[in-house]
TrEMBL record:
Keywords on record: Membrane, Transmembrane, Transmembrane helix
Protein name, entry field: TM2 domain-containing protein
Stretches for region Disordered: 1-37
Keyword check for Zinc: no
Source domain of life: Bacteria
Composition-biased stretches (Low complexity): 1-20
Annotated TM2 domain residues: 40-89
Pfam families membership: TM2
Membrane topology type: Multi-pass membrane protein
InterPro entries the UniProt entry points to: TM2
Subcellular location: Membrane
Length: 114
């Protein structure tokens, strides 16, 4: 028994393959250039802070993400060190992403300087 599908112009016989679904391609939002007087954050400093002190969320405070930094700090301190292991791994991963360029803006949407 042959399968048929509706291609919008009428029914056509299926040649053994399902119709392809092409998901929409989203463009990442671009950051902005810093406004006059705004001090750009350093990509290298943020990455090194994330790798070395990511357990305490210092890199998040540096980039302006104070709520995320506070959450990382409190989870590290209030779980008697058990949560610190998870936050430490999280910090290393974010540090690699920052240094790799996958995280390239601060909390205000301004590009990090190299």
């Amino acid at each position: 028994m042959a399968d048929y599908y509706n291609n919008g112009n009428g029914y056509q016989q299926n040649s053994g393959q399902q119709p392809m679904y092409n998901p929409p391609q989203y463009q990442p939002q671009t950051g902005m250039e810093p406004p006059p007087g705004y001090v750009q954050k350093s990509r290298t400093a943020a990455g090194v802070l994330a790798i070395l002190l990511g357990t305490y969320g210092i890199h998040s405070f540096y980039l302006g993400n104070t709520s995320r930094g506070l959450m990382q700090l409190l989870l590290s301190l209030l779980t008697c060190g058990i949560g610190a292991i998870v936050i430490w791994i999280w910090g290393i991963l974010e540090g690699v992403k920052i240094l790799d360029g996958r995280i390239n803006t601060d909390a205000n949407g301004v590009f990090l300087k190299d």
